[in-house]
């Protein structure tokens, strides 16, 4: 009987690229300090306690992947190549970070729901913007997305680009009070 030796292949870990500040801001749309704040605020207490895969991603790395995908939406494979991770890692990270941000939405997005708060909002707008009897501002914008496989034609806007029509309101301090991102790009803003 032939003797053989079971030799495991050594795992090779890629070294993360180190970007200078200008390139970092272009890639992730934030400087390092602000990106780390976002990561620590949204992801620290939302970590998966049992990481069963090769190497766990830090909260900062997860936020980098998430923001890179938002800044340049397209194929996840492109983000994976840019950041030296696997495409499936990008996919899982997008879900994890999106759910973490969504879980904290009530801490950040509010609307005046009592007469007292409504009065404060009206006074703030009148004092800072010189616009009486107004509690905020509303606007819509198209956020570019890749064409969905189901009902993809509904997401093509009048410029021929696939998008989601996002409506947002803000108060006198220019803080978002509500966001609605449920409308396909073919929906006109006046219909929202």
UniProtKB/TrEMBL annotation:
Keywords, ordered alphabetically: Metal-binding
GO molecular function terms listed in the Swiss-Prot or TrEMBL record: metal ion binding
Residue ranges annotated for the DDE Tnp4 domain, each copy included: 138-187
InterPro entries in the cross-refs: HARBI1_animal, HARBI1_dom
Domain of life per record: Eukaryota
One Pfam family per UniProt: DDE_Tnp_4
Cofactor(s) named in the record: a divalent metal cation
Name assigned to this protein: DDE Tnp4 domain-containing protein
Organism: Acanthoscelides obtectus (Bean weevil)
């Amino acid at each position: 009987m032939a003797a053989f030796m079971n030799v495991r292949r050594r795992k090779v870990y890629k070294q993360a690229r180190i970007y200078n500040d200008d390139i970092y801001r272009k890639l992730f749309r934030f400087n390092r300090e602000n990106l780390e704040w976002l990561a620590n605020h949204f992801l620290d207490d939302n970590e998966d306690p049992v990481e069963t895969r090769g190497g766990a991603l830090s909260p900062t790395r997860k936020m980098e992947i998430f923001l890179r995908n938002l800044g340049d939406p397209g194929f996840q494979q492109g983000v994976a190549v840019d950041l030296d991770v696997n495409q499936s890692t990008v996919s899982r990270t997008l879900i994890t970070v999106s759910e973490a941000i969504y879980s904290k939405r009530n801490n950040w997005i509010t609307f005046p729901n009592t007469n007292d708060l409504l009065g404060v909002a009206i006074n703030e707008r009148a004092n800072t913007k010189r616009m009486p009897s107004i509690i905020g501002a509303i606007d819509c914008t198209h956020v570019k997305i890749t064409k969905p496989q189901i009902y993809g034609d509904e997401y093509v806007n009048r410029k021929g680009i696939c998008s989601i029509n996002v409506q947002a309101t803000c108060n006198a301090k220019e803080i978002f009070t509500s966001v609605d991102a449920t409308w396909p790009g073919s929906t006109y803003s006046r219909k929202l």
